[in-house]
């Protein structure tokens, strides 16, 4: 079968990879001048989250699935992006310590929670804290590296089109006479103008098959929509309650030796492969654009001043929008009236851990007819 994937971020990459692995032809269209969440995320896989130390949804299934697909892709692409590393959390006071200890007695929690972890180089780098707690089986996925390496491969194979997809073309590309409900055509809303320079290297072919190639129709058996937060502009899926949460981060460098673990204090401090730290992130449900702002830069610098006790240099300041959903569950499924149109979205703040299993559920549904779990099936939102 021949598939077209709209949006090659984390969701589009894993879905496409699974389809290719099953022997299908996959083409991709992505607007490279837009900022993608996948290019900004730290990619933390965190089994125990929040102030109440709650186990992440389905984490026992998500971690093995993530490790399997990411390490397989590492071998295919010849780059490393799956990094297993402990996550050290700050306990701020006795109350926190008590909550942590009580929680670790709950069934299924013990294997993820360590009361007296080895903090490694954290005390030399950062201000003293009341106590440390350790999260086991945490990891970091360098999502940006994975997406870029996959893109390089599909560009070289002539299966990538660098272009903003025009939704009016869906009918022609699928050869369908069905149309999205008129009420869903949100012509009033437009993705705000791109605020970033193109991310693609000079000379990237903008077309699928050479300089003059383009999408033709009808030539696809199935179109899969993976546009991240911009899916709200897709008239076919505009009935879904798309959210959006803007996040900003700093990339900083210190002269001290790089940590070999992640640290969560006022902000996350995540060691990156190039000897820098990812520091973040901010979280805003209301935003006017996807650009970094001086206000949030100051906020992150203030948090960093509370955490680091060594001088640091800011290398970069980035922003992107997370594709959130009101009930905090994925969007997976096929369009109620046009089953050849499918969606994988709503990865929210946890795309690195959710996308591996989410893409498997979608692909197994499309290829084998397996049922999508009801809690993530878009059918829960009606037509
Ligand atoms: C600051 C920040 C920190 C984060 N940290 C973490 C973390 O630590 N752990 C974690 O698991 N998750 C994290 N996330 C969330 C994670 O980044 C997302 O869940 C995930 O990357 C979403 O992937 P996606 O493919 O759905 O969307 P995106 O990465 O946004 O990709 C969508 C792609 O579709 C393209 N597109 C959209 N519309 C069109 C169109 N009409 N035509 C062509 N192309 C189009 C876009 O250009 C983009 O490339 C973070 C996000 C942010 C912003």
UniProtKB/TrEMBL annotation:
SUPFAM superfamilies: FAD-linked reductases, C-terminal domain (SSF54373), Nucleotide-binding domain (SSF51971)
Cited InterPro entries: FAD-dep_OxRdtase, FAD/NAD-bd_sf
Annotated segments matching region Disordered: 179-215
Gene Ontology cellular-component annotations: cytoplasm
Domain of life where this protein originates: Bacteria
Coiled-coil annotated residue ranges, if any: none
Biased composition range(s): Basic and acidic residues: 179-190
FAD dependent oxidoreductase domain: residues covered: 3-364
PANTHER family: SARCOSINE DEHYDROGENASE-RELATED
Protein's name according to its UniProt entry: Glycine/D-amino acid oxidase
